[in-house]
């Protein structure tokens, strides 16, 4: 029997996880050693990313399932909690690093454009492109916890604990929504959704790499 769309996406995440665990930014989170520049770079780009992600999410879920939008959109707004952990370690604040507004870097732009293009094609593809966001972080955080990386002396433990905790429900809810929609679209579009999802996972990896590029 064919796995459901969400199972296949989870397999993609599992397949790519070794690359995430080897990524230098992720290793820095695990060991508690990241330069201030890398942390600032990451949070600046992530603020730009999440702002646009929320707008797209509102657009897609508003069309698909407004009551689910109402239940879940606060999950994205709450991510500021994860950023605060990083900013505290870097001894800075959101205001300081976002004023004046930094420019979006190449990977951030490419990722946002990828999700925008997918959403223009269909809400199903839009949702698939956005699903890597919770799916990758939840799996990553779980693996970091398994490694014991959220130990008390790691300044980034709160970041790991945030994603192991809160992205869980959001991730399952979105996967469920994708599986519910799946029978309503053609087989070709279901296949395309898998490709779109994989591309988003690759951009997630590039997003971490970008944070350390000019550090
Ligand atoms: C780029 C990116 N991807 C995923 C997440 C976690 N939702 C995030 N904060 N930023």
Automatic annotation (TrEMBL):
The EC number(s) this enzyme carries: 3.5.99.2
Listed GO MF terms: thiaminase activity
Keywords: Thiamine biosynthesis
SUPFAM superfamilies, sorted: Heme oxygenase-like
Pathway: Cofactor biosynthesis; thiamine diphosphate biosynthesis
Stored Gene3D superfamilies: Heme oxygenase-like (1.20.910.10)
Recorded catalytic activity of this chain's protein: 4-amino-5-aminomethyl-2-methylpyrimidine + H2O = 4-amino-5-hydroxymethyl-2-methylpyrimidine + NH4(+); thiamine + H2O = 5-(2-hydroxyethyl)-4-methylthiazole + 4-amino-5-hydroxymethyl-2-methylpyrimidine + H(+)
Domain of life: Bacteria
Keyword Zinc: no
InterPro entries per record: Haem_Oase-like_multi-hlx, Thiaminase-2/PQQC, Thiamine_Salvage_TenA
GO biological process, one term: thiamine biosynthetic process
GO cellular component assignments: cytosol
Residues in Thiaminase-2/PQQC domain copies: 24-211
Family from the record: Belongs to the TenA family.
Quaternary context: Homotetramer.
Descriptive protein name: Aminopyrimidine aminohydrolase
